Amino acid sequence: MPAIFRVDQAATFSMVMFLSSAPKMQFGTQQQDTTKDGIPKWEVQVVASFTQFGRTENEILKVGVVSHGDPAAAIGGMPQPIELVGFRVGVTPAEKRTDRNGNERIMGGTAWYQADEIRSTSAVPTSRKAATAAQEG
């Protein structure tokens, strides 16, 4: 069974709003994590709205993005509606592990999120030149 699933954002969420972006740090260090190819990893936090049992629910998702620069730079870093391009969900399988005290514990069984990039869906210009062009439009 596949462990990674592609998500149709428009069919799943009524809205996805960018909140923040920060370097993803290597576990236990203050160094930014990278892929095997040396590309930096980022953690983008978004709020996703969806309907469940007839009610609107909102959840904050931490979405991993691989990019040479801050993925929020292209959208100006401010809260706004976005598209998670290439959005996918993975599931870490649950497994039994023994901790250092000899106790058996169930680990995993959690979802994680990734996207290829984030893209603004609002009409907010990202530069003075774009703002001028939009006004003259």
Describe the model.
This protein has 137 residues and is mainly beta. It is 9% helix and 46% strand. The chain has helices at 9-12, 128-136; strands spanning 4-6, 15-23, 41-52, 55-66, 80-85, 88-91, 95-98, 104-107, 111-115, 117-120. The strands form two sheets. The protein has an eight-stranded mixed beta sheet with strand order 1-6-9-4-3-2-5-10. The chain has a two-stranded antiparallel sheet with strand order 7-8. A hairpin with a 5-residue loop joins strand 7 (95-98) and strand 8 (104-107). The longest helix is centred in the last third of the chain and has 9 residues, at 128-136. The radius of gyration is 18 Å and the shape is globular. The N and C termini lie far apart (51 Å). Residues 128-135 have low confidence and may be disordered.
The tally of beta strands, per DSSP, is: 10
Low-confidence parts, pLDDT < 50 over ≥5 residues?
A: 128-135
Rg, Å, rounded: 18 Å
Structural class: mainly beta
Strand arrangement across the biggest beta sheet: 1-6-9-4-3-2-5-10
What is the CA–CA distance across the termini?
Answer: 51 Å
Average pLDDT confidence is 87
The tally of helices reads 2
Order of helices and strands: EHEEEEEEEEEH
Gross morphology: globular
Give a short account of the largest sheet: 8 strands, mixed
How much of the polypeptide forms β-strand, as a percent range? over 45%
Report helical residue fraction.
Answer: under 10%
